[in-house]
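Dear support,

I submitted the protein below through the web form. The confirmation email said the job was done, but the results page showed an empty box. After a refresh the structure appeared. I'm attaching both so you can tell me whether what I see now is the final result or a partial one.
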Amino acid sequence: MAKRDYGTGQLYIEFGSYYGRWRTADGRKLNRKVGKARVKGTSEGLTRAEAERRFRKMQEEEERTPTRSVSERRTVDDATDSLRRKLKIEGCRTSYLQGCESMQRVHISPRLGSKPVDRVTQTQVEDLAEEMLAQGKSPKTVRNVITFLHSVFEHAIDKRWATENPVRRATRPKRRRAGDADPDLLFLSVSELHRVVGAIPDEVVLREPAPTRRGRRGPAPPPPPDVLGPVLRIIILVAALTGLRQSELLGLRWRDVDWQAQRIRVRNTFVRGEHSGEGKSDLSTRRSVPMADVVAEALRHWLERTNYSAPDDLVFAHPQTGRPVDRSKVSRRFKRACKDAGVRVIPFKNLRHTFATRLAASGEPLRFIQEFLGHADSKTTQIYAHYAPSEHEVAMVNRAFAQDPDA
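What the results page shows now:
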C-alpha cells in the first residue's frame, strides 16, 4: 500500500475506531470518524488498508462538496431537535426522550443552542460543564448532559452539518466509583418514622381556602379536597420497611404482592410517565423483598379500602383516577410531614437507608441487604457496614490491651 503524501492528513485509532484528520484546500481543519477498527482474529471492522481507502475517499468527497454559507449553517438546537426526532422514530423509551428534551431546554439551549453546530469548540463544551458544576449540579448530571451533547455532534457529523465533535476530547467530571457515597447517611429512626406517618391525615380532608384577592367579585371557589393522605401514609411505611425505590413503589401491582410467601416481587417501575420495568431480568428490576408483619397488615387493610384492588391495579393508585401518584407530590408531602412531625427533613429516597441501616444494625449479612436493595455492585452496599454490630471486634481489641507485657 502506497504511503500518503506529506500534507494529506493523519489516520489514527482512538476508542476502538479509525479517525482521519486533515486540512482541506480552503484551509479548514477536519477530523472525522472513518469507521470501527478491526480487532485481530475477528472479521468485523476495517483493516488498516480499508481505512486508508475510505479516508482518501472522504477527503475527495469533501473537496467536491461546496462550503456552506453562513445562512446554510445549522445550529446546535437544529442538530439536537433532529437527533430527538431520530430517537423517537427508533422507538426509544418515553422517559429517555423526556430526559433528552429536558437536557436540551434547561442546559444546552441557553448556552449553546443558537451557535452554529460546526463552530462550537472544546473549550465551550468544557465551559458548559464548569458552569453547571458551579450552579450546584451533580457530576452525574453534568456527565449525562455532556454525553448527550456528544451524541448530538456525532449526529450532526452524520448529517454533514459539522466535521468535528468538540465533545470527544472535552474534560468531564469523573464518574463516582461504587462505595464512594457519603458514609454519614441521613435516615429516620423507627420512632421518627411512626411520627412522620402519624403527621399525615388518614382520611380525606378539606384544604384551607386561599385568601380572596382584593377587588375580586364573589367568594373564591373552594379548594379541592386532599385525597392523598391515606395512600401517602402507606407508601411511606412500605418504603421504609422494604427498601423499595420510589419508582418501584409507584409501579407496584397487587399481583406482585405474594401473601402466601409474604414477599413483594419487584417487576415494574414507573418513571416519567412510563412503566419501564416489566419484562426485564436484571437484579434491580427482578427481585423480591420480605414483607414484615406490619407491612402485610397495612397492605391488607389498604386492599379493603382502595377502589382499585384487581390483580393488575396499582397498589398505590391515585384514589380518584387509578393512575400512579405524582412522584413530586409524594416527595413534597413527605418532607412536609417530616417538618410537621418535628424530625429531620430527609429526601424520600433516604427511606431506603432507614431499611438498610436497621437490617445492618440487627446483624443481617450485607449480601442479604444487597439483594433486597437491588444493588448490582456489592461495594455500594458497603456503606451500611458501619452500622453492623461489632461485639467480636470490641472483644478483640479488649484482649489485645488486657495485659501490659511491660508492667
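Response: this is the final, complete result; the empty box was a page-load delay. The beta strands are 10-14, 17-23, 29-36, 257-258, 263-266, 270-271, 274-275, 287-290.
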